[in-house]
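FAQ
Q: What does a multi-component entry look like?
A: The components come first, one per line:
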Amino acid sequence: MALLVLKFGGTSVADIDKIRNAARHVKREIDAGNRCAVVVSAMAGQTNQLIAWVEDAARGRAANVDGHRENGESQGYDACEYDAVVSSGEQVTAGLLALVLQSLGVKARSWQGWQIPLNTDPVHSKARITGIQGDALRGQVLDGEVAVVAGFQGIAPDGRIATLGRGGSDTSAVALAAALSADRCDIYTDVDGVYTTDPRIVPQAQRMNRISYEEMLEMASQGAKVLQTRSVELAMQRSVPVLVRSSFDDADQDASADLAELGTLVCEEDEIVEQKVVSGIAYAPDEAKVTLIKVADKPGVAAGVFGPLAEANINVDMIVQNVSEDGRYTDLTFTVQSADLDRALDVLRSKKDEIGYGDLDGSTNVAKVSAIGVGMRSHAGVAAQMFHALSEKGINIQAISTSEIKISILIDAAYAELAVRTLHTLFGLDSR
Amino acid sequence: MALLVLKFGGTSVADIDKIRNAARHVKREIDAGNRCAVVVSAMAGQTNQLIAWVEDAARGRAANVDGHRENGESQGYDACEYDAVVSSGEQVTAGLLALVLQSLGVKARSWQGWQIPLNTDPVHSKARITGIQGDALRGQVLDGEVAVVAGFQGIAPDGRIATLGRGGSDTSAVALAAALSADRCDIYTDVDGVYTTDPRIVPQAQRMNRISYEEMLEMASQGAKVLQTRSVELAMQRSVPVLVRSSFDDADQDASADLAELGTLVCEEDEIVEQKVVSGIAYAPDEAKVTLIKVADKPGVAAGVFGPLAEANINVDMIVQNVSEDGRYTDLTFTVQSADLDRALDVLRSKKDEIGYGDLDGSTNVAKVSAIGVGMRSHAGVAAQMFHALSEKGINIQAISTSEIKISILIDAAYAELAVRTLHTLFGLDSR
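Then the predicted structure of the entire assembly, as tokens:
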């Protein structure tokens, strides 16, 4: 007997038929003698409908600045009421899945965040989990009753519902798995695992059997949007093995099948036997490059540039500063999300006098490609191999950034797919 | 300053524009210096959508009779999960109305049943309120913050959400008004009050300024479906004045206007100054008549007939037993809802031997018309007046039943509208 937490995302519970399919996955585990808690998202589309209502309801608020002020006011509405409305989506799915399970003869009961309780900090609409008092729930689960938990929500210190922010259901699931000391957290989603790169670009991409938490964090933040970053951080911190698998696989297949056949297991580095040097190639097309030309090469300039950008809530990714030729001026290049480019340029123009630069240049015509692998730690020369292969294809590298387990390059967007294919082959990731 | 409970039904909060209109009613009261708690239903249509999902989710349940069994199983699904799903409709409206109020500069906070808490008995999906611990809510309201309460729901002793059954939001509102010792409970709905009879039948029907609880109970159970019967019983028991008014009236009209101009006040009998003998004429077209011919005239026969009907959950209304001519046999006539007629006949046919009757006859071709008025208590001859007027129009009375404040007659359905118009004129209810 294993204690499992299963999580189904919005597309996996989009209608009653899909909820029925999810229930068959749960029933298979129960029939195999396992004990289950299930975390569900809202039915796909419901959350957007609820948010649209909230935004419509709060319309006209700006004209009433003397009104009631609360947390989250900056979004233009009271985050506490946003939470009360939007959390209802997961509440509905949890009840419906419990009903379907009962219709299949499986004992089940729905749990909302406040019923467990799953406690959060007071930051409504972007709350973080502070603790789960899971004893009652665990007792029921060990007793053979499936606990169907509304994801994405908990109860804040003010006694009101708090949501965890978009994608928070993954985090709910991992946190619950940790609190219950579950043997594994299975994330059922609309893909069947984590691939060595985007299969739409490289048809030879392979599903990984296993990936370490660290690599998954780099893959996820690079655009392999399978698992929410916070959930991976939490899984790493609490050593929760997470299996990413498809909810659209045959729900009746043997529960005891080899995990490697079912999806990708995100786990500790030392549980991965045949570790490659590079595990995967990530690709972020939505990058934009900003270059400040002829910036004074002196202390305080970086703060002058990046401080105002941070205040404007613009995330800066790769930063490259060339060595100054004359010791007086240099060029400063960095990347932001494409969607933030115009705002970033506006901020920098408004600060031109304080920063002091010659010219400002922005371009969305770039892509970031990264090679990721914990094996890099013990293998020198990975970067050299990479640059050599790309130069052979005539691909010019505009910027480079590295971490212990990742090498990222910024290149002309036109060459992005060629670069991904080249690196995928170079590091032996193509399937035979 | 008055402490008011305002209740808005589903059609009055059907979309964000209607919610905004409801908010303007609330703001008008706040601007006039009053303190408000507001009870809301789900947006019109939402509850039906949620129930449809529940029924779809529970489909196939009948094939799994060995499965999990709970309260409410007789409906084919677990009432506890039904409650978890369906209660989300009111939760959404409460949050949205709070947001709209804030956008108008009015301090507001939503409250779900479990947050107040509003306690219920354990009968999920048809729960009754057992108590309201309204101190925290009352404190906030007296402090000037509008409490927007999700109607139709509370928390059961098992710590789970319980709904009060269809129309339960009226009961939520009256119970909250009683718990807060509110000065009045205003029910905003899609009609502007209670009329002396159905204005679609009698164009001269008038809106009543006031009606006693007792009369309202008779009117409501007779088909004037403005207020849920349980809410009127509760208002009577706890002496809560209830004002029925239209949510589509001009929301900005003077809050201190004469109540008589705003709608119909349901109140104690002695607060009604100019009491007429008959206050209103009610009309129930959906009646069916059942006659058992040649039934033995001996003790126990009535129990033999009505026991099995009660077991089959069929409500019997008017019962007439003729005096037996020969002391041995008699005829027994009673009415049921039209929708129940076939089931009632089936039950009686299956019990023919036990009951012992000559023949069985059923007809939906009848209507019930009632004259209602607390003034009848002190006025003899109302029934005689009524029968005389009807006989002058050639209307044959098939059955009669009376209470202290009501006389009901059963007639051929073809004459129902003529009978209503005749009685409305007879008792001086036509507007000039």
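Q: Is there any commentary attached?
A: Sometimes. For this entry: The longest strand of chain A covers residues 280-296.
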